Amino acid sequence: MTKRIFLTMLMVIILQIYLFNYFDGSKVDLTGLMIVNGVPVNSKLVIFGTWYIFISVLSFLSLGYLRQYISGYGMYLMIREKSRVKLGIRRIANLMILISVLSLIQLLFSIIFAFINNSDQAFFYHDFQSFICIVGLYIMSNFVLIFIQMVLELHFTEEVSLLVINVYVLISVTLGGVLLSVQKLTWILYFLIPNFGMYIRVDLPESGPLGLSPVIAYMVLTIVTFILSALLYIRLKKIDLT
Predict the structure, then answer these.
(1) Which residues pair with 202 in a beta bridge?
(2) Ramachandran angles phi, psi of 202, nearest 5°
């Protein structure tokens, strides 16, 4: 299943980068890191849709990644090893590694494409610390979103979990754009995780004061991860192996 997700997402990444260039070539002419730039506050619907491709397909391919494993082959391992929590956490850890690798490949492909497409204008962030900060936020927010879906699957059906996380992503990006455009109630942004990995929506030295503090964003993601881990632990402990 992991191999299938990886290969499919490689094709999705290539398609997404091509569409970004087709609908808004200016993104390629700048840093080449068009992925972490995110969705502009007043963006075209096609730009929003192009950005959404990656997380939506990743969410769909992750459907049942934990639930089906636990109710299938993982159940036999839990009976034999009597360590259901360890197996569940290992499964989530593998998912985190997969998402991190895919996100880094996504960024690498966008950089390579930028140089091939317009090598004279392509450049990187002048502040390397800002670059590391936004890439970390992007990878961590992607992981947390899928982690939420995995935990929801242990309490609800897979289809409901998929629907909830995707509706949350769409509402978060749309509402985040509205809040940033009017510069009011920006504290609500800290409940809208999909905005965390967007360079143009985070307060970084080069992007100027916007709305999201990267420090608080990292704190929120860390707290949410701990909460999800606790919920996962509790749920796995309650699974009936008989």
Answers:
(1) 212
(2) -115, 145
